[in-house]
Amino acid sequence: MNIASWLHATALVQPDAPALLEGEQARATYREFAAGARAIAGGMSALHGVGPGQRVGLFMENRTEYLEALYGVWWLGAVAVPINYKLHPKEAAWIIENAGATVLLTGDGALSEAVALPAGCAEVGVGTPAWDALRTAGTGPDAPAALGNDALAWLFYTSGTTGRPKGVMLTHHNLAAMSTSYTLDVDEVSGADAALYAAPLSHGAGLYNFMHVRRGARHVVPRSHGFDPAEILDLGERVGGLSFFAAPTMLKRLVEEARRTGRTGEGIKTVVYGGGPMYLADIEEALAVMGPRFVQIYGQGESPMTITSLRREVLADSHHPRWRERLASVGTAQGCVEVRVVDEAMADLPPDTPGEVVVRGPTVMAGYWRNEQATRETLVDGWLRTGDVGRLDAEGFLTLTDRSKDVIISGGTNIYPREVEEVLVRHPAVSEAAVIGRFDRQWGESVVAFVVVAQGASCDERTLEAWCRGEMASFKKPKTYVFCESIPKNNYGKTLKTELRRLLAERDGTGSDPA
User: Is the N end or the C end of the chain the one with fewer CB atoms within 10 Å?
Assistant: First the structure.
């Protein structure tokens, strides 16, 4: 199947239903949404020779054209490569090259002015003459290309502990299974709903478009193109039926704004939160201020949004004797997957025993793009090894007790220390570097870098801040630098991150592991 067939079918049955909105302003009906996708498909084919299986990058902020572009890619049977808009141009260019993208669709057409794009990759910016030409160069096929279930649809780049991003290959069947699981285990969807895209469309928020397209719901991009708590509360009241994905830090800010202004989230139907730890006190406050509007999910790019869910009725059941224990969990397995907690030999562990979380089902990725070794290490006998540590209780509730080694989650975004360390040690004044996370009440965690200055060199925080600004996305940069004489290591030369956390705790005066 081709996931774009869902848009095609909805446009035929409900052509005049409102589809794309910018704030409260309607931009397109479903007939116009499908026509826009078809026009983009026609232009990419006519001008750039894009066809089935070829990759098309998308590097832009949230906007209604983003959704049209996604479906234009799939209309041709091509592969969408959504790239985090917050990435540094050099990081985006690496992904574009690794994916072998033929076309790059951007917000302003200016990425190629900041960094050299791979040979053979054409940039087209929304609103530029090139965009106008793309939309008028060809009509595109009458219907989306016919594809098999295993055809690649979405190539999602998620950073890895080796320091380079890995391309997660998601098929059309993966995306359909994920969407079906949403309606079973997260929330019901109807044409009266409005999917709000306040978190990046390149990530989880974008993956939640499919079920709303299938049911003919509205798709709302805030005028701010991002997350503004006051704007979202206003849209809830004025648009109604809002459902959206939010990282825990976003949810906390929304609740704080609601409490400050005396509002309760009227018109907000569902907030799905995930992507990082939700502290018990924060979800209790959210329920107290805004009521039972929340659902938690746990997933990974490798099984997108679909490992477990903690449904709203469970979150709201404060009379249950184990309510707080359940609130601290990430819920139970979603209906489309099997979830186990295993030891190193992949043997099941008894209830309440910590081990690695593994998952199997139709949402699990096909593998990593051009990375057979990583695929073999992660997919074992059909099971996805998540690298996360957790425990299952007798009722099937999964509680995460740790994360993949050393990963820092800040504002719902994964930051892998190795990536930051590699940038730091490229500076000529840096001999060694090690990066850990520090507890941060607002962002969940912040990045702390331990740095050893090269002999005979001089270096300070301002120097490294300027260096990192030119080499990586802002959200990955260290917030704190600790200059030291050496990095603690074990007998095998491996950096002792636990010792660094202890040293940081002593430095901060907490006396315990702050992460």
Answer: N
Token couple for 119: 């040979």
Of 324, 278, 273, 315, the residue nearest 297 (C-alpha)? 273
Query: Contact at 8 Å (CB) between 307 and 357?
Result: yes
β-bridge mates for residue 82, sequence order: 58
Q: CA 171 to CA 283: how far, in whole Å?
A: 34
Helix (H) or strand (E) holding 46: helix 30-48
Alpha helices in 217-296 (DSSP H): 229-238, 248-261, 280-290
Q: Are 116 and 264 in contact (CB under 8 A)?
A: no
Instruction: At 113, give phi and psi (nearest 5°).
Output: -80, -25
Report the SS3 class of residue 74: helix
- In angstroms, the CA 351 to CA 77 distance is 44
CA distance 272 to 297: 7
- Residue pair 385/342 in contact (Cβ under 8 Å)? The answer is no
Return the H-helix or E-strand segment holding 483: strand 480-483
SS3 301: coil
Place of tokens 């590097």: 59
Residues contacting 234, CB < 8 A, separation 6+: none
Residue 162: phi and psi, rounded to 5, are: -80, -5
pLDDT tens digits for range 345-387:
999 999 999 889 999 999 999 999 999 999 999 999 999 999 8
Give the Cα separation of 120 and 48 in Å (integer). 10
CB 294 within 8 A of CB 315: yes
In 38-141, beta strands by DSSP E? 55-59, 79-82, 101-106, 122-125
Taking Cα atoms as reference points, which of 319, 321, 363, 316 lies closest to residue 339? 363
Please report which residue ranges of 76-171 form alpha helices under DSSP H: 89-99, 111-114, 129-136
Reported as half-sphere exposure (CB side, CA atoms, 13 A), residue 398 has a value of 29
Angle between the N-to-C axes of helices 417-425 and 461-469, in degrees from 0 to 180, rounded to the nearest 10: 110
Predicted confidence at residue 515, as pLDDT, reads 33
> What mean pLDDT is predicted for residues 146-159?
92
